[in-house]
Amino acid sequence: MVRHYIRVALRNLTKNKISTFIHLTGLSLSLGICLLLFGYIRYEQSFDGFHVKKNRLYRLEMTDIWSPQERDANAGKKDEEPVGLVFPVVVSGDMARTFPEIESILRFKDYGGGLVRVNNQTYREKHLLYADSNFFQIFSFQLVKGSPATALSSIHGVVLSETMAKKYFGDRDPIGQTVSILNDSVQLFTVTGVAQDAPANSSIQYDWIVPLLSDRDYAENYKRRFNEMTHLIAVLLKPGMNTVQFEAKMNRWVKGYFVRPIVKEYGQSFFGLNSSTYRWQLRPLADAHYNPSEPWGHYTSARNIYLLSCLALVILLIAALNYVLLSVAGVASRAQEAGVRKVMGAGRTSILLQFWTETQLLVVVAVAVGLGLALVLMPLFNVLLDAEVSWGQLPARDVLIAVLGLSAGLGVIAGYYPAWVVARMKAVSVLKGTPTFRINPRLSRVLVVLQYTACIILMVAAFIMHRQMQYISHKDLGFDRDQVIIVRNPSWDRDFSRRLRDRLYNFARNKPEISAWSGMNGGLNGSYNLNGFKLHGEQQHLRQLTVDFGYFHLMGIKLVAGRFFSPEFPTDTLQAKRVCVVNETLFKMLGKEAQIGRYDSSIQAVIVGVCKDYHVESLTKKIGPVEHVLPINGYLAGFLLKVRPGDVPRTLAALSNEWKTITQYPLDYTFLDQEVADMYKSEARWERTITYSCLFALFIACLGLFCLSAINAANRTREIGIRKVLGATVMNIVGSLSSQFLVLVLLSLLIAVPVSTWIMERWLEDFAYQVGIQWWMFALIGAVAIATALVTVSFQSIHAALANPVNAVRNE
Fold first, then answer.
1. How does DSSP classify residue 612?
2. Which of 112, 261, 407, 783 is spaced 20 to 30 Å from 459 by Cα?
């Protein structure tokens, strides 16, 4: 019987080629996109889940000791709540000696970009990771060469990633080769191991893994104990340990070990120090990427993962509803087939299974085609979303479950109703040709409303996100970010920095295409020092930027009162009483006591000027109090060159030549506008996801409207013929046929407006500066939705209106 169902289904599918093609196209595209989204979701969820000991492996965290807010026992473990991740280097050894529940404990730190020298060639690598010797015993990073137990046991040994080993030594054996790291001086190391490149879904990335004890600052950090928060800590508990009980025991110890010394040393200096709710906690390493705290290698927004899952379901639902509408539109052509089957003795269940088998067969083919599309489109998907998803990274079991689940689920959702419609038809009425078997489009209208509601919500979301991103891109940030080159200082050496500063400034001075030059520590992407100060008995915090002479002029920042730093004032560089330029927010915060040219005891500096407020971090945060100071001992992390329009390529070529005469370090530069734009990568990626999904969903929904208009035209064939006989024009008939679809779209709009408003208000909450949701946005989206719907249904309406009325009446 099943074989018969399949044979008949294949015959019908190949017979109705156009209908099958439309079905297959809609379902395949929908399933392909859903599989791509599924791959992205599983990729994001898989971060740090590959470690063999992940069930016992935790990241050590601390809550904010300066926060006066009361918190419950698990508040610090909420995904979106920032926590402290860096600890003093002394902590790990003290914990290991105190708690027998700990099997192993590891300190590590990614120093970021660093300069290295191999074979007399200097390179800047992205990830110089310093770690304890048990790094490869706790984590599941595989060594290609060397032993996990001994690779980092010597302070003069270093482990390279496979990519780095290939880059430096080609096919030669790297083990035993000498390499060096360039800090303030040259440190020599011997290659003792080669590790496989860290997986793309690892928060911990590395180019070099260096023994922690070889860090030049280690001894000083250890000596300063709690005064230096420097390293991340991973804790491996023994099997069977209860983490709740361990945390309670650990925090009883923390009060005497850490909190009391901190309170004793700083309690009199800081208002708001809160030791009562301060605690240390363990977060499973596989879940750490859901928390946005810095520094951590990767952050996955759990909310965005949830929304992406909902988006995939919406697209799948729209595809299923569209298939139902397409199938119902063609039911009339299959009615006599069902009638003959019933007359020949087929029961309702048999007919239902026959039509459901046809649907399921089509779905299986669509899933196979959709999977092929997903495989082909994955590179383009990665480019559009700036992702690194690969099907090879996903467990085969997960992909198989997803494919089978989509096949079965979509087959049931999309196949049951059309099959039920055909199965319930009365055989006598169908064979007589009476109109009783006409399709009632009531449920079809409900499905169209659901489809179009989802599409309008996506359209509103895409439009508001686009507006917000445009607002961010074009908002006046209070400084000129265009045509500014940032040259990175490759060394921490102060003498080298002063020489580099003088040479670069002299280079800029002699280049007419460079209009201004300066330098700074930090950046305008949220890189600053956060310093505390006491004001009127309350603890406050300010953002401190270290800038050089000419900074405000180069950036186009306006002066409100006083003056900017100038070499013409020798007092600006005196260390006895440091001078500063504050922004308007800080000056107003300091109150009437703050005077230009006078020493302010709150911030312990002489305020020589007040600049207009400008943004030193993302627009997700409001402008806070900012203090500008001159560099101490002349060190600057970056140098700024303002280039005249059209002269950037020529300036970069001249800069590259000049750099080679200054140092052998590689030239590392970026552009200020790009650095600012990088702060919004996540939001931009989310906007692209919604926009592309919106366009696709709208296409599928239009197919649904097209099908419903076909049902409507078929059901009203006799009415249309009579109207034309009585003198109705084509426009009269088109208007009559299209009016009900206008009602459906308006109903969808009424439902979508409050839903989309609520969703987008939640999304905009992340931005301190918002574009706002206004009535005209919904009016515009509504107009586009109505126009799209009318254009879609007009084809069927015009076709029906132009038909010969004599044929319509005779056929009825």
1. P
2. 407
